[in-house]
Design a protein that fits this description.
Oligomer: single chain
Low-confidence stretches: none
Number of helices: 1
Order of helices and strands: EEEH
Shape: elongated
Structural class: alpha+beta
């Protein structure tokens, strides 16, 4: 599985950390800590790829 760039930032509006993967449309997750958000987005990435790779083009410009 390719590695994808992950953004992690604190959202004042949500009062939580947000992690998202720009190359995977709408793949994001929240956590009370940055580490928790990262762990959750890794789970979301696996699910996203298992659902959307069948019949869908996934961007392959991920960091290597």
């Amino acid at each position: 599985m390719s590695d994808y760039h992950i953004n992690i930032f604190y959202s004042d509006e949500d009062a939580a950390y947000v992690a998202d993967i720009p190359d995977l449309d709408a793949c994001s997750a929240f956590g009370q800590t940055a580490e928790q958000a990262l762990s959750e987005v890794e789970k979301a990435k696996k699910l996203w790829l298992s659902v959307f790779t069948v019949g869908t083009t996934v961007h392959q410009n991920a960091a290597k």
